[in-house]
Design a protein that fits this description.
By secondary structure, the protein is α/β, with parallel strands linked by helices. It has ten helices and five strands.
Length: 233
């Protein structure tokens, strides 16, 4: 069993401090019978693997809050951006009758446009699309937790090539969370804080990611912990 669930704090596993809060806009609490769907890209698709962050969140509820009967479902597809989530929201999310939806998106919206902006998602399109997703999910009766995009490169000093754009898209996510009073899981802020402590060599990858973007095991455990806090755990 992962140390995150044996001890409750990933920082004890890595020997580094954990964050006390997520900057959440709306306080979210998990209720009996909740169906939580994680909507996103390849990070979330891999998160549904046995040791991925989605599965770890589900295991935490099974171990610590079994009486609630919480169901956790992964709905990630590799390469997805905000427009892709719009296209498949009804089929992959709303049809499953969620009570809470965690949207973890933005990496590909930035990353795919690094050489050709038309291959990514322009800021105004990202904002409009993310806001529309919130509205559609809310209309179904489910609560929304927005997660800021985490990292494209693990250097903590702002020297990753796409840091400025990733910060811009994170600000857009925070803005929508505030305006629409959704939950906010500020993974961008959490990663930067954690990497200042756990990446003294200022490496580009290998701390919480395997390749500057996709989570390694420590990264999956860290994301699971931060998300659990955003769910009031």
């Amino acid at each position: 069993m992962s140390t995150i669930f044996k001890l409750g704090f990933l920082g004890l596993a890595l020997g580094i401090p954990t964050l006390a809060a997520n900057g959440q806009t709306k306080k979210i609490s998990v209720k009996k019978g909740d169906r939580i769907i994680f909507l996103g890209d390849s990070i979330t698709q891999a998160g549904a693997d046995p040791k991925g962050y989605v599965s770890l969140v589900g295991q935490a509820f099974e171990k610590n809050k079994k009486d609630l009967g919480v169901v956790v479902i992964g709905a990630g597809i590799s390469g997805n951006k905000v427009p892709d989530l719009e296209n498949r929201l009804d089929r992959d999310v709303l049809a499953q009758k969620p009570t809470k939806v965690v949207i973890y998106i933005g990496i590909n919206d930035v990353w795919h446009g690094k050489d050709d902006p038309s291959r990514g998602t322009l800021p105004e399109r990202f904002e409009a699309g993310l806001a529309g997703l919130v509205d559609r999910i809310r209309k179904s009766g489910a609560e929304v937790i927005l997660a800021t995009p985490s990292v494209i490169g693990e250097k903590f000093d702002g020297s990753n090539k796409l840091d400025p754009k990733l910060d811009q898209y994170s600000d857009i996510t925070r803005k929508i969370a505030k305006e629409k009073n959704t939950g906010l899981c500020d993974l961008r802020k959490a990663f930067l804080s954690q990497l200042k402590n756990s990446n003294p060599g200022n490496k580009e990858a290998g701390i919480l990611t395997s390749d500057t973007v996709h989570l390694n095991q420590a990264g999956n455990e860290f994301v699971a912990e931060v998300i659990l806090k955003s769910l009031g755990q």
